[in-house]
Design brief:
This protein is mainly alpha-helical and about 675 residues long. It has a domain at about 1-110: Alpha Horseshoe (Serine Threonine Protein Phosphatase 5, Tetratricopeptide repeat). The chain has helices spanning about 1-25, 30-40, 45-60, 65-70, 80-90, 95-105, 110-125, 125-140, 145-165, 180-190, 195-215, 220-240, 245-255, 260-275, 280-290, 300-320, 320-335, 340-350, 355-370, 375-390, 390-400, 410-420, 425-445, 455-470, 475-485, 490-505, 505-515, 520, 530, 550-555, 605, 620-625, 640-645. The protein is elongated. The termini are far apart.
Length: about 675
C-alpha cells in the first residue's frame, strides 16, 4: 500500500509540475502559485518548489511574502541558491543596505547579481562604484539589454554632474533614444550649460513622440504623461534662466496631468514654492502636500529631499509658524550638523521675533564649532549688526574674517562703513593692512622680487585718493610717489602728485611739473567744428552769414562795448490816462493817504438823528463854520483824534507826505460804537 501511495503521489506531483511549467510560460503566475502550493503540501521541503513559490510571489508583486518564505526556510534555501531573489526583494522593499549585504555575501557573483549590484549602488549614491560596475557589465555582456545598460550608465554620469559637480567624461554613447538624450541634458545642466541642455531636451521630446506614436495603442494622454519628466526639466531650466512666468506655467500644466510619479510631482511642487517665496503662501501650502506623498523619500536623492525640507522650514517662517519653523530647522541641523542653512533659518526666525542678540549668539556658536563655515556666518552676523545700527561692531566682525579681509570688495565695504562713522584712522588702517598683505603675497610668489600686482597698485591709488579727500596730504604724497616710481610714464599719477604737492610744497610741485609732457605732445586730433555741431553740445557756433555795411559798422563799433540787457517795459494799468497826472500818494496804503475818510457804511443823510440824545455825528465838526483853519484851535477832548496827534509830534517816515502833496491833512475823528474797537 505504501508503494502504491508513493507512486500515486509522484504521478500527481508530475502533473502539478507540468501545470506550473505551462503557467510560467504563459505568464500566469497566480495560477502557477496554486500548483506550487499543492506540490509543497506533498513535499514541504522541496527546494525547487520553494524557489518557484518565491519567483511567483515576486512576479505578483508580493515581495514581503516572498522574503518571509526565504527567511523561514533558510536551511533549505541557502544564500547560494536564492541570493538574487532575496536581494531583489530587499531592494524592492527599499531595504537597500540589506540588499547590498546579501549581494556581497553571495559566494558566486552571477550576471543577475551584478546588474542588481549596479542598481543598489546607484540608490546608495555611490556613483563612482556604480560607474565601474556598469562599465564592467557593458564590457562583458552581449545580449538584448545592452541599450538599457548604456542608459543606466548615462544616468550615473548625469547624477555625478548634478550632485557631485564632477565634470562628466565623454562616454561616446550614441543618443538614439530619448532616455539617453534626457540623461545627457541632465549632465549639461549640472555643468551650467543651460542652452545646450534645452536643445537636448527638445530632441528628447521629439524622439519620445516618434517612439510612442509608432504604437497604435498609445493615446495622446499617454504620450503627454511620458513627456512630463522632460517638460519638468525644461521648466527647471527656464527657472534657472529667470523666466519664472514660463516655468510656472509649464509646472502647472504638468500637475494638471496628474502623473503617477510621486517623485516628479514632489520636485515640481518644491520648485513652485521656491518661485512663490514669501508671496502666494496659500498656493505654497497646497503644493507642499505633494512633497509629503508616500514613497517620495525613495524616489529622490538625499540632496533633493534636503532641499525640500529646507523649503518647508522657510515656508513655516513666512507663514508665521514659529514653532514649526524651529522644529524643522532643529531636525535638519541634527541630520546635517555641519550644514549652514538650518542655522541661518533659525537666526532669521529669531530676527523676525526681534531677538537679534540671540540670533547673533547662535551664529557665533556655530562659527566657533565649524571654522570652515565661519566666513559665511560672520558675514550674516555683520549684516545683523548693521541692521541694529552697530556699524563699528559690524566692522570688527568683518575684519576678523582673515580669508576675506584683503579682498578689494571687503576693503571697499570697510572703508565706506568707517567713513560713515567718521573713523578715518581705522579706514586708513584697513587700506594699509590690505596693501601690506599684497606686498607679502607678491614677494612670496616671486622669490623675493617685489613686482606690484594690478590689485595692489589699485589699492594704493584708492588709499591716496582717500587720504587727500580727508586732509592726510603727506600720507597721500607718499603713496603717490610709490605709484609714480612703479610707472614714471603714468601722467595721471604725476598730475595727482603735483596737485598734492601744491597744497604742501609749491616749489616741489613746480619741480615735478617739469616732468609733465609738453602741450604739443599731448595735443589731440579733434575736429572742433564736428564736436561743436555734435548732438548734445552745450554750445553750437552759428554759421557765418553775409553782413551788410551797416551791420559791419555796428559789429566793429561794438567790439569793446559791453552789451546792455534790455529792460522789459512795465505793464500799465487798464484805466491809465497819459493826460492825467498820477496820484502822488498811490504808493501809500489807502489808510495812510490824506484823503482817506474811513469806511463808508451808508449815505450821510441816513446817519442824521442816529445815536444817543445830545450826541453829535462824526461829521458835525466839519459842518461847524467856527472850526475853520482861521479859527483858534480849541482844547481837544480826551480820546479824540487830536489827542493822538498831540502825543506824537514826529511823523514816522512812512507817514510823511510826498513832494507835491496838499499842505494840510484833514483830521479824522474816531468813531465810537458800542462793542467795537476805536479806529482813526
Amino acid at each position: 500500500k505504501m508503494a502504491a501511495a508513493t507512486a500515486g503521489g509522484a504521478g500527481a506531483a508530475a502533473a502539478l509540475w507540468s501545470e506550473v511549467n505551462r503557467c510560467g510560460q504563459n505568464g500566469d503566475f497566480a495560477r502557477a502559485l496554486k500548483s506550487v502550493n499543492k506540490i509543497l503540501q506533498i513535499s514541504k521541503d522541496d527546494v525547487t518548489a520553494l524557489q518557484c513559490k518565491v519567483v511567483c510571489l515576486i512576479q505578483n508583486g508580493n515581495f514581503k511574502e516572498a522574503l518571509s518564505v526565504i527567511n523561514t526556510h533558510t536551511k533549505v534555501l541557502t544564500s547560494d541558491v536564492i541570493a538574487f531573489e532575496k536581494a531583489y526583494c530587499e531592494y524592492r522593499l527599499n531595504r537597500i543596505e540589506n540588499a547590498l549585504k546579501t549581494i556581497q555575501s553571495a559566494s558566486q557573483q552571477t550576471d543577475k547579481l551584478k546588474e542588481l549590484y549596479g542598481q543598489v549602488l546607484y540608490r546608495l549614491e555611490r556613483y563612482d562604484d556604480c560607474l565601474a560596475a556598469y562599465r564592467d557589465l557593458i564590457r562583458n555582456s552581449q545580449d538584448e539589454y545592452e541599450e538599457e545598460r548604456k542608459t543606466n550608465l548615462s544616468a550615473v554620469v548625469a547624477a555625478q554632474s548634478t550632485w557631485e559637480k564632477v565634470m562628466p567624461e565623454d562616454l561616446g554613447l550614441r543618443e538614439a533614444t530619448y532616455e539617453l538624450c534626457y540623461n545627457s541634458a541632465c549632465a549639461l545642466i549640472g555643468q551650467g550649460k543651460l542652452n545646450e541642455a534645452m536643445k537636448k531636451l527638445q530632441k528628447a521630446e521629439e524622439l519620445c513622440r516618434q517612439s510612442l506614436s509608432e504604437d497604435s495603442d498609445v493615446t495622446e494622454e499617454d504620450i503627454e504623461a511620458e513627456l512630463a519628466i522632460i517638460h519638468g526639466q525644461m521648466a527647471y531650466i527656464m527657472q534657472l534662466q529667470g523666466r519664472t512666468e514660463d516655468a510656472l506655467q509649464l509646472y502647472n500644466q504638468i500637475i494638471k496631468l496628474k502623473p503617477t510619479d510621486v517623485g516628479l510631482l514632489a520636485v515640481i511642487a518644491n520648485n513652485i514654492i521656491t518661485i512663490n517665496k514669501d508671496q502666494n503662501v496659500f498656493d505654497s501650502k497646497k503644493k507642499v502636500k505633494l512633497t509629503n506623498a508616500e514613497g517620495v523619500e525613495h524616489k529622490l536623492s538625499k540632496k533633493q529631499l534636503q532641499a525640500i525640507e529646507f523649503n518647508k522650514a522657510l515656508l513655516a517662517m513666512y507663514t508665521n509658524q514659529a514653532d514649526q519653523c524651529r522644529k524643522l530647522s532643529a531636525s535638519l541641523q541634527s541630520q546635517s550638523p555641519e550644514h549652514l542653512l538650518p542655522v541661518l533659518i533659525q537666526a532669521a526666525q529669531l530676527c523676525r521675533e526681534k531677538q537679534h542678540a540671540k540670533a547673533v549668539a547662535l551664529l557665533q556658536d556655530f562659527a566657533d564649532q565649524h571654522p570652515a563655515s565661519a566666513a559665511e556666518i560672520k558675514l550674516t552676523m555683520a549684516q545683523l549688526k548693521i541692521a541694529q545700527g552697530s556699524v563699528t561692531k559690524a566692522c570688527m566682525i568683518l575684519r576678523s574674517i582673515e580669508e576675506l579681509q584683503h579682498k578689494p570688495g571687503m576693503v571697499s565695504a570697510l572703508v565706506t562703513m568707517y567713513s560713515h562713522e567718521e573713523d578715518i584712522d581705522s579706514a586708513i588702517e584697513v587700506f594699509t593692512q590690505a596693501i601690506q598683505w599684497y606686498q607679502q603675497f607678491q614677494a612670496s610668489q616671486t622669490r623675493g622680487a617685489n613686482p606690484k600686482s594690478p590689485v595692489h597698485l589699485s589699492l594704493v591709488r584708492e588709499a591716496a585718493n582717500f587720504k587727500l579727500k580727508h586732509g592726510r596730504k603727506k600720507e597721500a604724497i607718499s603713496d603717490l610717489e610709490e605709484l609714480w616710481k612703479q610707472n614714471p610714464k603714468d601722467v595721471h599719477t604725476l598730475a595727482q602728485l603735483i596737485s598734492a604737492y601744491s597744497l604742501v610744497d609749491p616749489e616741489k610741485a613746480k619741480v615735478l611739473s617739469k616732468h609733465l609732457p609738453s602741450s604739443d605732445t599731448m595735443s589731440l586730433k579733434v575736429d572742433v567744428d564736428a564736436l561743436e555741431n555734435s548732438h548734445g553740445a552745450s554750445y553750437v557756433r552759428k554759421k557765418a552769414g553775409k553782413l551788410t555795411g551797416d551791420n559791419q559798422q555796428k559789429e566793429q563799433g561794438q567790439g569793446d562795448v559791453k552789451k546792455k540787457k534790455k529792460k522789459k517795459k512795465g505793464k500799465l494799468p487798464k484805466n491809465y490816462d497819459p493826460k492825467v497826472t498820477p496820484d502822488p500818494e498811490r504808493w501809500l496804503p489807502m489808510r495812510e493817504r490824506s484823503y482817506y475818510r474811513g469806511r463808508k457804511k451808508g449815505k450821510k443823510k441816513d446817519q442824521v438823528g442816529k445815536g444817543t440824545q445830545g450826541s453829535t455825528t462824526a461829521g458835525s465838526s466839519e459842518l461847524d463854520a467856527s472850526r475853520t483853519a482861521s479859527s483858534p484851535p480849541t482844547s481837544p477832548r480826551p480820546g479824540s483824534a487830536a489827542a493822538v496827534s498831540a502825543t506824537s509830534n514826529v511823523i514816522p517816515p512812512r507817514h510823511q507826505k510826498p513832494a507835491g502833496a496838499p499842505a494840510t491833512k484833514k483830521k479824522q475823528q474816531q468813531k465810537k460804537k458800542k462793542g467795537a474797537k476805536g479806529g482813526w
